[in-house]
Give the backbone structure.
Amino acid sequence: MQIFENSNFDFMGKRKMCYAISAIIIVIGLISIMMNGGLKYNIDFEGGLSLEIAPHPIDKNIDYLTVDQVRDALVKNNITDAEIQEFPVSKSFLIRTKSSTRIGDTIVEIIKAEFPEHTKGENLIRSQEEVGPRAGADLRKKAVNAVLISLLFILAYVWIRFKFTWGIAAALALFHDTLITLSILSLAGKEIGMTVLAALLTIVGYSINDTIVVFDRIREDLKIYRKDDEYHVFNRSINEILGRTAITSFTTLLADMALLIFGGQVIHDFAFTLLIGIIVGTYSSIFIATAFIMDTVIATKKRSKSAVKK
Amino acid sequence: MRRNTLRTVAIVVFLLVTFFYLSPLVLPKTYDKTTNTEKIKKPFTFWTEKLLKLGLDLRGGMEINLYVDLSEIHTETERKDAVKAAVEVIQNRIDQFGVAEPSIQTVGEDKIVVQLPGLRDFSRAKDLIGKTALLEFKLVATADETQRVIEQLDLWLSQNYQNYPFLNVLNDADFKDDEILKTDTEEETDKIEWHQEIMSYLVNSGVQSMTVSHENKTLLRQLLKDEAFKNALVERGFQILPNKENLINPKADLELYVLYPTASLTGSYLTNAETRMGGQGDFMNANKPYVSLKFNREGSRMFERVTAQNLKRRLAIVLDDVVYVAPVIQDRIRGGEAQITGSFTLEECNDLVIVLKAGNLPAPVEIGEERIVGPSLGSDSIKQGAKAVVIAVVLVMIFMVIYYKLSGIISVIALFLKIGFIFAALTYFEATLTLPGIAGIILTIGMAVDANVLIFERIKEELKVGKTVRNSIDAGFSRAIITIVDANITTLITAAVLYQFGSGSVRGFAVTLTIGILASMFTAILVSRAIFDTFVSNKNRDTLSI
């Protein structure tokens, strides 16, 4: 079996259009981020409380609690800024606040006092995370550093193995992937936390992997087809490895879908971010990284031509 | 040919290591309820004692990040001491907790990360860790008093031993034999019941202090913790506290001190503590390190009174109910400046200074982050993670076999070996498997086949050009390897950055990702190649199922 056998798409001819598409998505994303007043961070980066409790009734004759009951109990005790979400499968509630003082233990006490018939069990607290503002700011700074440093290292590696402009192209493509992913996350109303950061860096890893495969083939073909101009060599290389690109993205997407659907609540955002990243990362290897090299080649040629004219 | 033998050796080693460290998954285990840990059952421990460790997010537990407020402290050494003091205090309290694998790490200048896997009693742990430390100076009872206390406790325990079922282990042959010997020498005719001399049996009293052998430590600690036992002691005017555990030799005897429960002084009167070196002129302490203490005015008065009244007695320095050192009072000390001398090493002096400072923490500690994962969420995560792994493997497997036919089966074998290797490597390095770690495994399942896909596609291309099967395989592998190495090294770079900057569970992800990448390079390049070679060299094939 073979997909894309003898394919001959004119990828490089579409690059201007793709620049435009990427630019539009990023602009829409940036507008959405600005309208939200910046990126939405979760408590990892901003501080606050995330508490999941499972108030299960002590015997069968008592009903499970509803979101409204929990909210009313908290409001009655002057906790008004809590966001409450229900997980029907585990019959639990996720309570989140951005409050900077530590109130997790207080909330647990309130729930215990208000619903004594639901809180006798051992496993009332499923998870509790509280992050102070200082710790959140620390992590945020680290996250930005992590992304930038990995970009720098990759730039250096590609520069050593290929060429400087190729390194720039690879880093640019990764930056593009990060921006598009953040844009789509903002549009989807997702919050950015530690797991999303891990997903972002994984995307960087996946995307550079894909980019290198393309670069590698181009380098090889440039040596074989010395007489052809770059435009055709680039197109030929991408077409040659199109089958591999499609299969790898597909298997990774398969694995990620399994994670997204069956991995459970904690890992959901990670899998979702990765889903965007796999698509964007594959796309950017061709339409951003390779296309950028194409444009630098054309620009150098123009310059040397005009130099000859003079 | 030589390359092939080398390859065979590498593959055999790879397989052996993988199977060896996967074996703990199937060996019978025992479960310790109090610490929520699993251990490999006794007769099988000769094989291996390593087990796959689950992270806090999978087995449940608590992580607390504390920040030491250093804003009031200006010199570098004092900042370091303040953080060390805080760590000492926390370490001390966690030791009393009985968590199986606690971890306390200092991160950066002022952050302390405490992890308590398997912990269930979250609120008690929080109370304990957040509490300020208490440093006390308490007088040690005299030898006569100590002897009397042991006798009184023997009596008390013989009346109350039914309340302490754990003491029943003492009611065995060993103990009786011991007693018979004793009764013989004392020429008593009455038979002594096992419960009549419990305390005398448990401790070996010496001139300086009492000790407990390693075997009886847990028993004694259980007694010391008991409220009724403590009250019985206090009613008689005493208290028994353990010495700091010997960290170098955990099987060493534990020292116990009988003390007066009321503190002569507390750490709040202490203004400074530091290590000094004895000068040349100092007859007793020439060139020897010692610890110097300084009290404030009120403390100085109290200290003078205590030392004057208790010359030649021992004064224990107690932090959070653990005795660190019990020096003998040599002189009446005026002016509030005292020295603790003895044959200390420089390191021991520095440790003691940290303990003394901990009791009067100059830098307050505040909880910056706290993460609790209850056992139910943890087990849900394991179930869902396992399900996702299985489904991902099956989907990828089906696809590869449909698309690459027999060659697809080779990649599936490589995939299984690789997943096995990830778990084996995690066990070997005693790294922890976290939920993001499971995500990392699933992701490398998808990406793992990439190396095989690169090779297979390359072989297909070569076949299309008209090369023979043999040549296509050679060319396919040798060309694809360059690409695979380049592509994977860049991914390793991001994994390394992730490890460096991530915390806790994200690090687990970076570790599995790294192991996964290395393993997939190995399995794709060496193992797949070996399988191809075996099949192709057997016959002069002219077709390849790919």
Observations:
- Chain B touches chain A through 76 residues (CB under 8 Å).
